[in-house]
Amino acid sequence: MKFLVSNDDGVEAPGLSALVEVLSELGEVTVVAPAQELSGCSHQTTTHAPLQVTRLAPDRHAVHGTPADCVRLGLLHLAPDVDWVFSGINNGGNLGVDVYMSGTVAAAREAAWMGKPAIALSQYRSTKEPVIWPTVIPQVRRVIAQLRSETLPAGAFWNVNLPECEQAAQEARIVTCPLESAPLPVRFEIQNGQFQYRATYQDRLRKPGSDVDVCFSGDIAVTRIP
User: Fold this and answer.
1) Which secondary structure element, helix H or strand E, spans residue 129, and what is its range?
2) Is 209 in a helix, a strand, or coil?
3) Least crowded by CB within 10 Å, which of 42, 123, 160, 189?
């Protein structure tokens, strides 16, 4: 089995390394990821400038472009024979309407459009404390094993959100659920004549059974998109 891995946190992100560790147990892994962090870049693509690719290792490439660029280059040139595409593990949740802003999710969406089964994975966190990535790996193994055994319709992909590390026991349920449709409450503060974005992720609505509710409750939220 061959896997392509990308993300939006950058090629050196520890979440990507954790995902590669899990997938390396299952087959061959090729990394094609942004050279720098591009969180929140959505499905932006580079069409009017050349893309520089730095080969860090035979199976590891840093692209001076977006997550969608990375998947396009991976599937068309750098690793065209892969069986699955994975994106993540994002350092933070991608729940509800976040999926329309997330570069991590966009990478999986691009793969699905190009005919490959894909999974985007994100690690929810409510504080600025760093994620202890080794504690995440057992959950990632479980959810990947389950989702790889399921059939995806053409053009669809899985969006996975892992609960906070201290909530995530080995027996955390894997729950298939819909996206929360309510957006994250957003406000701006004026500082020195400039507008500064402010939002508290934990204040968002969480209708019972939605992906936000499932993940905030300590379970693994899995949503098929579209």
Assistant:
1) none
2) coil
3) 189
Judge whether 162 and 135 are in contact, CB under 8 Å.
no
Report which secondary-structure segment, H or E, holds 213: helix 211-216
Tell me, what amino acid is at 154? A
Tokens 């600025």 appear where?
A: 128
Q: What is the pTM of this model?
A: 0.95
In angstroms, the CA 144 to CA 160 distance is 10
Alpha helices in 42-197 (DSSP H): 67-73, 103-113, 133-148
Domains of the chain: residue spans and CATH: 2-225 (3.40.1210.10)
Residue type, 88: G
Backbone angles phi, psi at 68, to 5 degrees: -65, -40
Which tens digit of pLDDT belongs to each residue from 73-83?
A: 999 999 999 99
Distance CA 118, CA 88 (A): 11
